[in-house]
Amino acid sequence: MGDHTEAISIDFDPKVISYEQLLDHFWNAHRCDRNNSSRQYMNAVFYQNDNQRKAAETSRVKQAERLGISIGDVQTEILPVLKFTYAENYHQKYYLTRYSDVREFLSKTYPDAKSLADSTVATRLNAYLGSGMKKDWKAFLAELPSYGLPDKLRSQLEKQAKKML
């Protein structure tokens, strides 16, 4: 375990959102002036090409300026993507662990770590049922029927979402 860093990999369509916009989201939700001493939990932004590296480095400088700290005080590393390994299935979609019936259905539908991690349905449910996403419960209710969930699960989630309106 000592030579890995826990990270997420985001597949994105640059026609919808740019790498620079993703970096903006990252910096707005990230404490860059502190770092865990463990490689497992280090602060890092990863890039896949020279353009992304330059964008990440520029965004790090802008973040330091925004916070009024020196670039040397920014503890977030800018690193190339070398290898990405999916975590085991039980580590995927953490917030769904609070909803065992939903999690069980999704784990049967997406039986391996990669398919669960790559599932749009699992990702959307994890975001809505977890935290970190500005929750538009009307949008959730509108898209919920398209998730292909069993009626009982869909009904439970509809009731919960309606309470949040």
- Outline: elongated
Q: Helix count, per DSSP? A: 7
- What oligomerization state is this entry in? single chain
Please count the beta strands (DSSP E, at least 2 residues each): 2
Helix coverage percent of residues?
Answer: 40-55%
Write out the strand line-up for the largest beta sheet, numbering strands in chain order.
Answer: 1-2
Strand proportion, as a percent range, falls in under 5%
Question: What does it look like?
Answer:
This protein is mainly alpha-helical and 165 residues long. It folds into 2 domains: 19-80, no CATH class; 89-164, no CATH class. Helix content is 45%, strand content 5%. It is built from 7 helices and 2 strands; from the N terminus they run αβαβααααα. The chain has helices at 19-28, 50-67, 100-109, 113-118, 120-129, 137-143, 151-164, and strands at residues 44-47, 77-80. It has a two-stranded parallel sheet with strand order 1-2. Helix 2 (50-67) links the parallel strand 1 (44-47) and strand 2. Helix 1 (19-28) runs parallel beside helix 2. The model has no long low-confidence stretch (mean pLDDT 88).
How would you summarize this macromolecular structure in one to three sentences?
The protein is 45% helix and 5% strand. The chain has 165 residues and is mainly alpha-helical. β1, α2 and β2 form a beta-alpha-beta unit.
What's the topology here?
Elements: H1 19-28, E1 44-47, H2 50-67, E2 77-80, H3 100-109, H4 113-118, H5 120-129, H6 137-143, H7 151-164
Parallel strand pairs: 1-2
Helix pairs in contact: 1-2, 6-7
